[in-house]
Amino acid sequence: MAGLPLAFAFQELSRWKRTTAWSAAVLLTGYNLLQHYQYHTGILSAWDMNFSKYRYVFLKTAARYRYCLGGNEDIIPYKAHLEPILEASNDFERTYPYFGTPYTIDHGAEHNRVCDYTNREYNFSIDLKADSTFLGDRGIYAEIALDRFELTPWACTSAMFTIEMTDTSGTNFTYYAFRINEFPSETIQTWKRFTYHVELTHVREPGDQMKMYIWNPGRKAFLIDNVVVKLYRII
Question: What are the φ and ψ backbone dihedral angles of 153, each rounded to 5 degrees?
Answer without folding.
Answer: -60, 135
